[in-house]
From TrEMBL:
This is DNA polymerase Y family protein. InterPro entries: DNA/RNA_pol_sf, DUF6504, Rev_trsase/Diguanyl_cyclase, SulA_CellDiv_inhibitor, UmuC. Residues 367-386 are annotated as: Disordered. It comes from Mesorhizobium ciceri. GO terms for biological process: DNA repair. It holds the Pfam family IMS. Belongs to the DNA polymerase type-Y family.
Length: 492
């Protein structure tokens, strides 16, 4: 038996067939059950483990349909509309599901109907039954009120007035039922009978394109999986070409014969549909996850899905039939590195609208960087060119400025004569500046504006090394705190 705590009391939450044969029931107190049968075994419930198990079973059910939803703590909804013919019909599909669950060690009850409500009732109260469209009322009529998926309090109120079956509720006038028991009762009834639509929300997004292959003999080797990826990618290429798109996010699903499912996803920096390139990316990903993927007795179903796609820009070929794309090799290299080491392995700097050095550049994942889709606009020949000399910036900018000690300066607003950084003394030979950068008043409101003002200097020491340092604060400002010096980057 499985127990759970309810209002400072341990009660039965689930029990097996042997416990049911002892006339034990759910919600019975554990103390009463032990008084009746002292030798019974009681295990504390673990809702988190049960949830993980149910989600694992939902992953496995993706082999039948991508529209799989969780139903409470012990059920699954499968929308198999348009999928049954792939398994030989409704009865063959239902038998296959029950047989596979049985061999995995689960006691499963299933029902198949045109509406989720009727299927739920058939599974919970009839065991294994297929309800033909139009027979929902005949199915529900003899069943108890719990088959309508209504609240326990509503069931108790209905039973108190003599309505003990779903058929009795269907035969009663609707208006009095709605006034006394609420509109949810009639909503559940109409959904089960097909008068109102009931949507099944899948737990995972449905891929717009998917191809799969059922294997007569399970595969266990990584080389065989990669070969299957290439074959599935070739099939996907035809569909992508017809849509004029390329894949940006791909997912490989490996269904193991014992019910476990491995999901392997990767992204591309640009739309891709070439099978050989897709196979290379999954080769890197599988190599990185080789220790984490347990083939067990093998995978009998392999599916390749396109989770996200984008417009595929065709490239003009030269007379030899070759396409020249300078960024293709870099994009493929970055994608392969990311597939093996993760999305954070390759980053791209992008400019940010800020004149503060530490805010002017941000690093983002390679796939999120904007790509130029049109060539840059050529300058007008009649217009005089504008010569703009941007301020010189160091080759290496520190993530955060490092404080330095400046013993003396030529003048209060001038560069230092020498400075100490990381316990080493550097003598200044040449200096350029200052370049004043004030605080961004539209982003922050410092207590003392002068304290946030920076005067940057380009410094060269006696050994020819160049640094970028600044003084924060002004002499003679309103703040009593003296200015401080920081090293922000190095030129060479």
């Amino acid at each position: 038996m499985i127990s759970h705590r309810d209002r400072n009391a341990q009660r039965i939450s689930a029990l097996d067939e042997r416990a049911e044969a002892l006339h034990l029931k759910r919600d019975m107190g554990i103390a009463d059950a032990r008084a009746m049968h002292p030798s019974i075994d009681v295990v504390e419930a673990d809702p988190e483990a049960d949830r993980r198990l149910l989600e694992g079973l939902a992953d496995w059910c993706d082999r039948y349909t991508p529209l799989v939803a969780l139903d409470g703590a012990d059920g699954l909804f499968l929308d198999v509309t348009g999928c049954t013919h792939l398994f030989g019909g409704e009865r063959a599909m239902l038998d296959d599901i029950l047989s596979r669950f049985f061999h995995q060690g689960f006691d499963v009850r299933a029902g198949l109907a045109a509406t989720p409500g009727a299927a739920w009732a058939a599974a919970r109260f009839c065991g294994d039954r297929i309800v033909v469209s139009g027979e929902e009322e005949a199915l529900l009529a003899p069943l108890p009120l719990a088959a309508l998926r209504i609240e326990p309090s509503t069931r108790t109120s209905l039973e108190s007035v003599g309505l003990r079956t779903a058929g009795a509720v269907m035969a009663a006038p609707r208006a009095p039922l709605a006034r006394r028991f609420g509109a949810l009762l009639l909503l559940r009834l109409d959904q089960a009978l097909g008068r109102l639509d009931e949507a099944v929300s899948p737990r995972l997004p449905v891929a717009p394109l998917s191809v799969e292959r059922h294997l007569a003999e399970p595969v266990t080797l990584t080389e065989d999986i990669e070969r299957l990826v290439g074959m599935l990618a070739a099939t996907l290429k035809t569909d992508l070409e017809r849509r004029g798109e390329g894949a940006r996010t791909l997912a490989l699903l490996l269904f193991r014969v014992d019910g476990a499912v491995s999901r392997i996803a990767l992204g591309t920096s640009r739309p891709m549909r070439e099978p050989m390139l897709i196979q290379k990316l999954f080769h890197e990903r599988l190599a990185a996850l080789e220790q984490d993927i347990d083939a067990g007795y093998g995978f009998d179903l392999v599916r390749l899905s396109v989770l996200a796609s984008a417009t595929f820009d065709m490239q003009q070929a030269d007379l030899a039939g070759e396409v020249t794309d300078d960024g293709a090799d870099i994009a493929l290299f970055a994608d392969r590195i990311r597939a093996r080491l993760g999305d954070g392995a390759v980053l791209r700097p992008v400019a940010v609208e800020s004149h503060l050095p530490e805010r002017a550049v941000a690093t983002i994942p390679f796939t999120d960087a904007p790509c130029r889709t049109t060539p840059p606009k050529k300058p007008d020949r009649l217009q005089a060119p504008k010569t703009i000399f941007p301020p010189e910036r160091p080759i290496r900018l520190f993530r955060s400025p490092e404080p330095i000690d400046v013993p003396a300066t030529e003048m209060p607003e001038g560069p230092p004569l020498n400075f100490r950084w990381r316990r080493a003394l550097y003598r200044v030979k040449r200096a350029e500046g200052p370049e004043r950068i004030a605080a961004e008043w539209w982003r922050e409101a410092p207590s003392d504006e002068a304290a946030s003002t920076r005067d940057y200097f380009r410094i060269e020491d006696a050994d020819g090394r160049r640094y970028w340092l600044y003084r924060q604060g002004l002499y003679g400002g309103a703040s009593q705190v003296p200015p401080r010096w920081f090293l922000h980057g190095v030129f060479a």
